[in-house]
Design goal:
By secondary structure, the chain is α+β, with helices and mostly antiparallel strands. It contains 6 helices and 4 strands, in the order βαβαααααββ. It has one domain (about 1-100): Glutaredoxin, CATH 3.40.30.10. A 4-stranded mixed sheet has the order 2-1-3-4, covered by helices on one side. The longest helix has 13 residues, at about 10-25. The protein is globular and about 45 Å long.
């Protein structure tokens, strides 16, 4: 079964859920705020998606970080920040079991 990683208040996540529902795709929801992000789950993502692709530099969480945390960002620092602040992951993340799709735009799930 696919898993959709979201933040429930996120409008793009809501659109992704609607798209999956319209296609009749069965999935489970994992809310990054409520359910958190384990180290093993983050590593699972990072085995399939480049770390800088996962890091959401447009998020409120990113904007609220200390300037020292945002300076000289590299893969290790990004990993540490995402572990400490799960809302720094771009979302939604759809793990189909075969691939992980990051973000959502209309039509992204048409091939599923």
């Amino acid at each position: 079964m696919a898993t959709l990683f979201v933040i429930k208040s996120c409008e793009t996540c809501r659109k992704a859920r609607e798209a999956l529902d319209k296609k009749g795709i069965v999935y489970q929801i994992h809310d990054l705020r409520e359910d958190g992000l384990s180290a093993s789950l983050l590593e699972h993502f990072l085995q399939r998606v480049p770390v800088m692709t996962l890091l959401n530099k447009r998020s409120t969480t990113w904007r609220n970080l200390d300037e020292n945390d945002k300076a000289n960002i590299d893969a290790n620092k990004a990993r540490e920040l995402m572990q400490a602040h799960p809302t720094l992951l771009k979302r939604p993340l759809l793990d189909t079991g075969e691939e992980i799709l990051v973000g959502y735009r209309d039509g992204d799930y048409d091939s599923l």
